[in-house]
Amino acid sequence: MNHIHIGAKDLRRSVQFYSDYFGFKKKFDHEPGIFLEDERRFLLAIDPVNVVPEFPEWFHIGFCYPDENEVLKLYKSMCENGVRLARDLMHEKGNFASFFVFDPDGYKIEVSWHNE
């Protein structure tokens, strides 16, 4: 997979969220939206919308990290900054760490690390 395309009520706020927490950087404009890219070259396209669609409760976007401490650090940062949690941190040191948050428009995001 190389990209996902979402809608946002406030484009600037969403770009800031994904840049601050997941390291996305602007790749190019896609009027009226934008394409962002992370260090693994995964693209996130965001277009402004008036209404964000509803998804089933189970639907989410997942970010899996290569290091347990990255997940713990991101969890702490998001909590300190008031990012709304969908599911609190589950952590078994040396085996797994995961939590779920909502982005500014309510998309559920899983952040995880698994010792595989």
What does this structure look like?
The chain has 116 residues and is an alpha/beta fold. The protein folds into two domains: 1-50, 2,3-Dihydroxybiphenyl 1,2-Dioxygenase, domain 1, CATH 3.10.180.10; 59-116, Roll (2,3-Dihydroxybiphenyl 1,2-Dioxygenase, domain 1). Helix content is 22%, strand content 42%. The strands form two sheets. Strands 1-4-3-2 form a four-stranded mixed beta sheet, covered by helices on one side. Strands 5-8-7-6 form a four-stranded mixed beta sheet, with helices on one face. The chain starts with a strand and ends with a strand.
For this structure, the CATH topology of the largest domain is 2,3-Dihydroxybiphenyl 1,2-Dioxygenase, domain 1
Average pLDDT number: 95
What share of the residues lie within helices?
10-25%
Distance between the termini: 21 Å
Segments where pLDDT lies below 50 for 5+ residues? none
Question: Keyphrases for this structure?
Answer:
four-stranded mixed sheet, 2,3-Dihydroxybiphenyl 1,2-Dioxygenase, domain 1, 2 domains, single chain, 116 residues, 22% helix, alpha/beta
